[in-house]
Design brief:
The chain has helices spanning 5-8, 14-17, 22-38, 64-77, 80-94, 122-139, 148-161, 195-204, 210-227, 259-272, 277-292, 315-324, 334-342, 352-366, and strands at residues 44-48, 51-54, 62-63, 108-109, 253-254, 299-302, 307-311. It has 383 residues and is mainly alpha-helical. The strands form 3 sheets. A 3-stranded antiparallel sheet has the order 5-6-7, with no helix packed on it. The protein has a two-stranded antiparallel ribbon with strand order 1-2. Strands 3-4 form a two-stranded antiparallel ribbon.
Length: 383
């Protein structure tokens, strides 16, 4: 019998398994959301009753990454008003209606809505689509732009078919079914690979694309075996399609984007339990940090674990993703990683945006509240 939460409906609370009080965990989750959305150190800004944005506080812009993350936070927390505010802002300002990026979302905007960058970043599109599909299942569809499921299917169709009958490039390589770093690229970003989303897309996309998404899920799981170092479990920021580091700027560092990879594969393991290798890789990542950085003075690392004498830009993100690896790990460092995370507060300085986003994903996941929402009638045996 398949054991993932998709099949069983059982979302483990790692916190409770380690003895944390359920009420305290739930309060901490709610307090964390409120701090991120409504405190003096928030990253959410409501500009009107129907629009709001997530700020990358380190760069003073709104990014498709953060906007789509914010929507996922809100659908998981049952915060429909904030979800709709973020989605409406993204659809109004970020969505492109003509040119080679028609149907995509430009990845960076000034806080007044004006465009700072033309091109999209594919992790935004995949999170937008997944959050919209969950919203449709949880709250039902409304009038445009709140016809969530239709909006999601349009995004997914564009991601796969862009360039077939119009200018532009798809976000997934049609030959190997891997997500690209940007539509024009011939390489990838390991942290963009979300096979647990693709299995769900296969159930809820336009029917003609279902096989594509199943193949994309398989391709991403296989790719991650190649991208992660056999001893440390770490991966580079960017790689070729064969998993070998792409030496962007002459570096193969585990630096920022790469932190998300172990968290993503651990959530995949929790939801679908489709690949035992993920458990072993999560153990390796936790062991690397617990055995080699006991003082928590995190640096930048080469994927073989060599230290680059450059302080980690996002140390709280490392703590959060190492803790989230506990969904898959089951190793001897689970408690150490989770306890460290629990005792680490949200970041409050100018660079807080990225760290705190990964922090909240970890809070959701480790409390058993990062969940799948499906419309009625979905046949789970089709995965």
């Amino acid at each position: 019998m398949k054991q993932g939460a998709f099949y069983t409906g059982n979302y483990r609370s790692i916190f409770e398994e380690l003895g944390y009080d359920r009420a305290a965990v739930q309060k901490r989750l709610e307090d964390t959301f409120n701090e991120m959305f409504y405190s003096d150190t928030r990253i959410f800004e409501a500009v009107s009753n129907d629009k709001g944005y997530i700020t990358d506080t380190g760069n003073d812009d709104a990014r498709s990454e953060g906007m789509s993350y914010g929507m996922m936070f809100c659908v998981q927390m049952d915060k429909k008003k904030e979800f709709d505010q973020i989605w409406n802002w993204a659809k109004t300002y970020m969505y492109q209606t003509d040119g080679p990026y028609k149907g995509y979302f430009s990845w960076s905007h000034n806080l007044d809505g004006s465009r700072r960058a033309e091109g999209p970043a594919p992790d935004g599109e995949e999170y937008f689509a997944m959050a919209l599909l969950f919203a449709s299942a949880r709250w039902g569809d409304g009038e445009p732009p709140y016809n969530y499921s239709e909006q999601a299917r349009e995004i997914l169709h564009t991601c796969v078919h862009k360039g077939e009958n119009e200018p532009g490039c798809p976000m997934w390589d049609p030959r190997n079914k891997q997500i690209k770093f940007i539509p024009e690229a011939d390489y990838t970003d390991p942290s963009y690979h979300l096979p647990h989303f693709y299995d769900l897309f296969a159930l809820m996309c336009n029917p003609e694309d279902s096989v594509f998404w199943k193949e994309a899920a398989r391709a991403s799981r296989e790719f991650l075996h190649l991208a992660c170092h056999e001893k440390t479990g770490l991966c580079a920021e960017y790689t070729e399609y064969d998993g070998s580091p792409r030496l962007m700027f002459g570096k193969d560092y585990y630096f920022s984007d790469a932190y998300r990879t172990v968290a993503n594969m651990s959530l995949d393991n929790s939801w679908f339990d489709a690949d035992d290798w993920q458990k072993e890789n999560a153990k390796k990542v936790q062991a690397f940090f617990c055995e080699n950085v006991p003082d928590r003075n995190y640096k930048t690392y080469a994927i073989d674990g060599s230290v680059i004498e450059q302080p980690a830009m996002h140390p709280v993100a490392i703590i959060a993703t190492n803790a989230m690896a506990s969904l898959a790990s089951g190793g001897k460092y689970v408690k150490e990683c989770v306890d460290l995370f629990w005792n680490t507060p949200l970041r409050k300085d100018k660079r807080r945006y990225y760290d705190n986003c990964l922090y909240f994903f970890a809070m959701l996941a480790l409390s058993g509240n990062y969940r799948i929402y499906l419309p009625d009638g979905i046949r789970k045996e089709n995965v």
